[in-house]
Amino acid sequence: MLSIPVSSLPRLNACLNAASAVLLVTGYSFIRRKKILPHKICMLSAVACSAIFLASYIYFHLKAGVIYFHGRGWIRPAYFTILTTHTILAVAILPLVLITLTFALRSRFAKHKAIARWTFPVWLYVSITGVVIYWLLYVVYAPA
């Protein structure tokens, strides 16, 4: 059985978010060039990365509890603004991804395209800000 220390999960989660962002942009690039199969592979891979992230994130916080931000000064309100928008949109993205994916898997491409126009930028924002939050919380302003 794979055993990853709980303390390693934030870094893993940031990597999963970064991978999701790269896969989203790559998948978008493929569909713009009408390369359907590579688009599908990228987007399903992004879903997989995000699903693994979600499971890991929940497990981490069940084990570690709340992690407090230690930054002071101007960065504190900036961090909490990013965290707040990230959290709200992270809650919203789950149903958006599921609906977008369902339309694609059912070959309802007009509806898929219509909702993907909203899903893509929100999902990309959540993925990128997840990495930024990790970097601020665990790297730049890590507790001593």
Annotate the secondary structure layout:
Layout: H1 9-32, H2 36-64, H3 75-105, H4 109-140
Helix pairs in contact: 1-2, 1-4, 3-4
What does this 3D model show about the protein?
The chain has 144 residues and is an all-alpha fold. The protein has one domain: Cytochrome c oxidase, subunit III, four-helix bundle (Four Helix Bundle (Hemerythrin (Met), subunit A)), CATH 1.20.120. It is built from 4 helices and no strands. It has helices spanning 9-32, 36-64, 75-105, 109-140. 18% of the residues are buried.
Give the tags.
144 residues; single chain; 0% strand; Four Helix Bundle (Hemerythrin (Met), subunit A); 4 helices; mainly alpha
Count of DSSP-assigned helices: 4
Order of helices and strands: HHHH
- Assign the CATH architecture: Up-down Bundle
Task: Kindly report how far apart the N and C termini lie.
Answer: 32 Å
> What proportion of the residues is helical, as a percent range?
over 70%
The helix/strand class is mainly alpha
CATH topology: Four Helix Bundle (Hemerythrin (Met), subunit A)
Strand residue content: under 5%
What is the C-level CATH assignment?
A: Mainly Alpha
